[in-house]
Each structure stands twice: as structure tokens, then as C-alpha cells.
Amino acid sequence: MFTRFISTLVLLAGFGTTLHASDFSATFAKVSATTVVIHTRASMEQLSPEGTQTRSSEGLGSGVVISEDGKILTAAHVVSVADDILVQFKSGNSYPAHVVSMAACADIALLRLNEQPPTLESAISGDSGSLETGEEVFVIGAPEF
């Protein structure tokens, strides 16, 4: 299952061996609508002299839309301890999501939006088996919009 998602990530990571630094902006323009910012919130209990206290922390990461039905691929470390996950799109719209599957050893997680946005563009899948050792790749993230 994760092989297909890793293939998608590899596709976003590189569009062949002929890319040069000047081509990165054009490639980003092709896929930027599929990149998202992931906001997380996690709560943890801590012991203190006053007793048990609940502390909250926030996290930030990026992901890529891999299907038009609301599946998002991200790194497992972004969502591994999250109680709440909010996916923000370039449009500024945000939607809650939940973890469907995670492989911490590969640092990869699959999210699904809790509600379907009116329109959703997904990244184009690639075939990591067609890549050769030594080919250039790069990763596209979603800086906070």
C-alpha cells in the first residue's frame, strides 16, 4: 500500500533527470495546488507539585493531496502524537483530518479529510521503479501560506 504513496512522493520529488535549478519554479507551479500545510495539536499530561496538568503543544508540517477523495500523504513525525489535525490549502481553507495509516519506520503517514472540499486537485502518480540510481530529485513542501 505504501509503495504506491512513496511513488507519488518520488514523482513530486523529481520530474526526471533533466531538471536544473531554473526548472524548479516551473515544477513547483505544476504541483503547488496539491501541497498543503498541516497544523497539529497534541495534549499531554505532566506531573507537577500541584498535581497532574494537561499541556498542549502545536506542530506544523506539510503534505500532498494524493487523491480527489481527500487522502493526504505526509511524514509520520508530523502527525504521530497529534490529537487534532487541520489541513490548510493554498486557498486559505482548512479542513480537519485523521490518520488512516502510518509507518513510523518509513516516516510516512496517510491522512483523510473528515469532510470533502467542493473541489480537490490531486498530485499525479509516478512510478518510482522507473528511476535510476543517481537521478536528481527534490522535495516540495508547503511553507505556511
Keywords:
145 residues; alpha+beta; Thrombin, subunit H; six-stranded antiparallel β-barrel; 3 helices; disordered N terminus
What's the short story on this structure?
The protein is α+β, with helices and mostly antiparallel strands.
Protein described:
The protein has 145 residues and is of the alpha+beta class. The chain has a single domain, classed as Thrombin, subunit H (Beta Barrel), CATH 2.40.10. Helices cover 17% and strands 37% of the residues. It has three helices and six strands. The chain has helices at 2-13, 24-31, 76-79, and strands spanning 35-48, 51-65, 71-74, 84-88, 94-103, 108-113. A six-stranded antiparallel beta barrel has the order 1-2-3-6-5-4. The longest helix is centred in the first third of the chain and has 12 residues, at 2-13.
Topology overview:
Elements: H1 2-13, H2 24-31, E1 35-48, E2 51-65, E3 71-74, H3 76-79, E4 84-88, E5 94-103, E6 108-113
Antiparallel strand pairs: 1-2, 1-4, 2-3, 3-6, 4-5, 5-6
Q: Termini distance?
A: 30 Å
In which order are the strands of the major sheet placed? 1-2-3-6-5-4
Q: Estimate the global geometry from the Cα principal axes.
A: globular
Number of strands: 6
CATH architecture: Beta Barrel
